[in-house]
From TrEMBL:
<dbReference type="Pfam" id="PF01370">
    <property type="entry name" value="Epimerase"/>
</dbReference>
<dbReference type="InterPro" id="IPR036291">
    <property type="entry name" value="NAD(P)-bd_dom_sf"/>
</dbReference>
<keyword id="KW-0560">Oxidoreductase</keyword>
<dbReference type="GO" id="GO:0016616">
    <property type="term" value="F:oxidoreductase activity, acting on the CH-OH group of donors, NAD or NADP as acceptor"/>
</dbReference>
<keyword id="KW-0521">NADP</keyword>
<protein>
    <submittedName>
        <fullName>Tetraketide alpha-pyrone reductase 2</fullName>
    </submittedName>
</protein>
<dbReference type="InterPro" id="IPR001509">
    <property type="entry name" value="Epimerase_deHydtase"/>
</dbReference>
<feature type="domain" description="NAD-dependent epimerase/dehydratase">
    <location>
        <begin position="5"/>
        <end position="85"/>
    </location>
</feature>
<dbReference type="InterPro" id="IPR050425">
    <property type="entry name" value="NAD(P)_dehydrat-like"/>
</dbReference>
Length: 99
């Protein structure tokens, strides 16, 4: 049975991918930034087949090499993890007035 990695498993698209792949009986790896954060990742373990076929890895796009283990040897990668980089701006109103 093929094994796939879905990056950013807690995300909207990723969660549906993980669910669909598990339902098809595939082995699934997913990456999250904090596997111990039950409030964020707990729902993934509740998916049908997750306890038998899902593996969770810690990975952060801002840390080079942190995805290596999760993608090593899989048949395919669905890369949906996506950082939201919002520049700090403590004076939004002034900025709005000038644009
Ligand atoms: N949703 C749509 O309708 C849609 C349509 C077209 C394109 N897309 C694109 O598809 C991608 C995924 O969309 P989405 O809606 O599923 O996004 P999402 O729900 O915001 O999920 C993004 C995922 O990326 C993870 N992430 C954020 N920063 C990270 C980092 N530094 N390292 C590792 N993981 C990180 C988040 O993890 P945390 O939970 O830890 O924050 C989250 O799991 C995005 O590139 C989006 O632009 C989405």
């Amino acid at each position: 049975m093929p094994e796939y990695c879905v990056t950013g498993g807690t995300g909207f698209i990723a969660a549906y991918l993980v669910k669909a792949l598990l339902e098809k009986g595939h082995l699934v790896r997913t990456t999250v930034r904090d596997p111990e954060d039950v409030g964020k990742v707990g729902f993934l373990w509740e998916l049908n087949g997750a306890k038998e076929k899902l593996k969770m890895f810690r990975a952060d796009l801002m840390q080079e090499g942190s995805f290596d283990e999760a993608i090593q040897g899989v048949d395919g990668v669905f890369h949906t993890a996506s950082p939201v980089l919002v520049p700090n701006d403590d004076n939004v109103q002034a900025k709005l007035a000038t644009t």
